[in-house]
Automatic annotation (TrEMBL):
It comes from Texcoconibacillus texcoconensis. This is DNA-binding IclR family transcriptional regulator. GO terms for biological process: negative regulation of DNA-templated transcription. Pfam families: HTH_IclR (PF09339), IclR_C (PF01614). Residues 42-225 form the IclR-ED domain. Keywords: DNA-binding, Transcription, Transcription regulation. GO terms for molecular function: DNA binding; DNA-binding transcription factor activity. The lineage of its organism: Bacteria, Bacillati, Bacillota, Bacilli, Bacillales.
Amino acid sequence: MTEIANRLNVAKSTAHRILSTLLLKGYVQQDPRTETYSLGLRFIELGHVVLDNLDLRDAARPVLETIAQETGETTHLVVPERDDIVYIDKIESEATIRMFSRVGRRAPLYCTGVGKAILAYLESDELQEIVERISFEPKTKFTITTKEEFLIVLDKVRLRGYSIDDEEHEEGIRCAAAPIFNHEGRVIAGVSIAGPSQRMTDEKLDRDSLIVRQRAQEISAKLGYREAKGV
């Protein structure tokens, strides 16, 4: 009590009234043995309210712009919805030849780079449930069509921290994608780039994949995920 009163430059009686109110509201807690004060659980609750209300698009938009500048490719922000992904934001490439996409468009989780990036980081029971529902319909001759091969690919995604769509959803289009996590460590979205295969060479795809992974980690950190560097 004395230390707090001195730090606030108020009388001990004033500090006592303030602390009594904060204690009643749950903002501070007191150790009955030492009589020292510490922050209460109410601050954690308030922190979650703030984090839950952060707008994903607002947090991601400047990072999407950076990715588009660094890679020169169309950049997407995507969220999962049952067995699909939904594009909720995009930055258009300035290249003459580019991928067609639009905000609101849907695509399957299993054959898109960003879908695989999200699936790879779901809880095992949730992933299993989704995989059992997937029919693995071939969209192109490159689409993964077996559950066994698909699960092996997801293992590789976890190892690298990013995923690749090698013309699996649309022929002639290659993509790189990475997951976005919220403050609870739960994957909630993904970011991806996409471009024509003649421009997205193996060398460029490898380089751009690392950019996407790093920038996705930045978005996760903005949403309160504190272990993004370990993704």
